[in-house]
Amino acid sequence: xxxxxxxxxxxxxxxxxxxxxxxxxxxxxxxxxxxxxxxxxxxxxxxxxxxxxxxxxxxxxxxxxxxxxxxxxxxxxxxxxxxxxxxxxxxxxxxxxxxxxxxxxxxxxxxxxxxxxxxxxxxxxxxxxxxxxxxxxxxxxxxxxxxxxxxxxxxxxxxxxxxxxxxxxxxxxxxxxxxxxxxxxxxxxxxxxxxxxxxxxxxxxxxxxxxxxxxxxxxxxxxxxxxxxxxxxxxxxxxxxxxxxxxxxxxxxxxxxxxxxxxxxxxxxxxxxxxxxxxxxxxxxxxxxxxxxxxxxxxxxxxxxxxxxxxxxxxxxxxx
Length: 320
Known about the structure:
By secondary structure, the chain is an alpha/beta fold. The chain contains ten helices and 13 strands.
């Protein structure tokens, strides 16, 4: 049985679906602080609770015979982390530590961790390889990097086999399953732009003075279904005792203004824009080198072209 923490969230729910499709038995643990109960099918065991509740977590491990963990549960808002850094220490690092203690007690060693490109901070060069220096510029990114370091020492101390996936910008949707981004507040670019389009409001552009040619920030967008596939491949590897850290991205960056242009093309609409100052904690360029993931685990992005990302998000928005 695979335990998916945060499995009622955006990426977690798509990964749960992919795991089940591939024949894995799954139990989901989510406190529903940001997740949605309706995205987890009633056929899948669901436990509402906190990963820091060691008594509850121990019962889940015992009752379901958990053999591996795919760990999504976390706070993930950069701006919020800047305003309340201790919340991110408590919610991400401390709660993950509590979960790891339960894994240790139950002799469960296989772990896939949802990390982030935020561990790198402002890159010295792009695309970014896994060996790039780690200098997060937000408490969110720092919490992810701290957890990765803790996982390394757990690997050394008691044989944990962690695989950390440092993904770049998750995007896209799975309209056939009604799975899409439903954050509150929504901070991700594409759903914000499409919501603005649907409501006839201007699209917000944060920062017009970044070094790239058009002045807006550049990101590497990877479709959520491709991310789910990466998690399944990582799970298969960690169950064999492998450990490591991998970037998940396409190697192709798009600026904010390029995303707006793609939305305009998909909707046949000219989008009004509101230009605002940069947000604290936002690097200018984040583009992945995913060569290690492709060579080691055989991952290839299949749905991460920009047109598919935009069209799937638009379709999911229209179907509700």
